[in-house]
Hints:
Elements: H1 6-42, H2 50-86, H3 89-95, H4 100-142, E1 155-160, E2 165-176, E3 182-193, E4 198-210, E5 213-223, E6 229-237, H5 242-247, H6 260-270, H7 275-302, H8 305-308, H9 312-338, H10 344-368
Antiparallel strand pairs: 1-2, 2-3, 3-4, 4-5, 5-6
Helix pairs in contact: 1-2, 1-4, 2-4, 2-7, 2-9, 4-7, 6-7, 7-9, 7-10, 9-10
Amino acid sequence: MKFNSILGRYLSKQIVVTFLMVLAAIAGVIMMFDAIEALRRISGRDDTGMNYVIKYAITKLPETIDKVLPFVMMVAAMICFWRASKHNEYVIIRASGVSIWGFLYPVLAAVFVLGALNIALINPISSKMYEMHATLKYRFITRDPSAMLFSSKGLWIREALNKDQVLVVKAKSLKQEKDETLSMQDISIIEMDRNSQITQRIEGLVGALKNKTFKLRGVQIFKSGQKTLTLPTYEYKTTITPQRIKENFVDPDAISFWELPDTIKFYESSGFSAARHQMRYLSLWASPFLLVAMVLVSALFSLMPSVRQGGVVVMITTGIVVGFVVYFSSQLIYAFGLNGYIPIWLAVWSPTIIVLLLSVTAMLIKEEG
């Protein structure tokens, strides 16, 4: 069956509309629970209100949707196929001489296009919201409304010197050396009071962080009401360590599909591990194929005569069980890849490929039967 035929357009429209309806319903439930969680968080806090609850629920939504998207597609496909079986549409289409692959082709094509649109258009928006959510949580924990996190554009890190002073370190680029030294360029060390007023700013052209000491060269020191001091070298004691800086790296989910390649190069050139970012990048490439695999799994349990004879409960239960098995298996394999036990590309692609091959084999056996 051709994708642009009347029947092909009808089937593809059915899966897209059903998917959007299921997605909207699940998104509403997720936002409700996230709002409840946010309300629990702000209980007893006088510095936050409903504004935080709304921002928390909205910015956290893309993160959760990204995790459950394969399940959403699976449920939508099961509903779509169940309707086709219930209204005898599937039987009529098959009786007209269309094979099961001819029936599934428009649906699979539409699902693949949805997956491609998700990583190309939706992912940049959701990653920005994910970054906003991470910053929102960080500011909530630190009680600092202006706190910032590390980004791929450079280094931003905040440290509390004491109850009255806050330290902010900014660097345009950084690189980890073999001796656990962090080399940096265009460094700014800013000391502020609790009212966010700058008390001192130290600028260095280049420098390094080692043994909790910033060793700077080409230094200018600015203090309020004093003349600018220029020094060839300067050492600044701190409690910041390379491990602390690595902990402040933005989560890979907060980086869009289009920015991940540059971010991976940035981390690798800096001497840090980019395994999590590589896995995220490859998983985005694999996501359209995973959605297609979940649709094939749905077809195995939905396009059955038992569904029209009251086997809906069995269909739903079996589909949910298979979905959870696929999800937990993929997470286990991801963990192996992240810890270096298996190659990253194998950890990302093997669950999708296995589900695809098993589904296609089962569909072929079903078609022959």
